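In this section we walk through a basic example: taking a raw amino acid sequence and producing a predicted 3D structure, encoded as discrete structure tokens. The instruction is simple. Fold the sequence below.
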Amino acid sequence: MASAVRVTQEGFAALVEGDAGAELGAAVDSVRAPRQVIELERAGARATCWVGDGIHLLLVPEQPGWFGAFVLDDRELPLALLRAVGAQEPAEIADAAIATDAGELAHALARAARGDEGRDELGRALEGLRSHWRASDGETAVEVVETGSRAFAVEPDGDTVRLRPVDAAGIYDAMTRELLHA
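The resulting token sequence is shown next.
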């Protein structure tokens, strides 16, 4: 990573509005006139990445009131986004995709987050729920559900939602291909 600093929200605003200096200047320019803005969501926390031309700025919440501001190049960006949402390598790949109604998935995720084990296929697939995260630029999204041992890409499929088994390489590929258009 080219640079990393800790800032408050007010400090970040002052940095963007003022002179960021030589080291952060190009990255701050990506905030002022981004090619793309990616919002990352996990467990109620939100990080933002401003994608510029070859240099990018990722703002990640750390402790209350403080953020990490990371300056990234094109090569570093996909992995940094995955780290920002806490993505991990699944221990195993599930056998098959699961199709379900979006509302049922929401209920199953809520039950799994409470530790309620479901007896149906969806409930068993979500057993040991670790995280549910999403990265989106407003038009395209990469959404993943991770359990203690498996990961599923969440994909709209007509009137249903499909949970497709995926490994770390598949998540990385989706992030670069679908979201970053690389």
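Looking at the output, two observations stand out. The chain has six helices and ten strands. The CA atoms of residues 98 and 121 lie 8 Å apart. In the next section we compare this with other chains.
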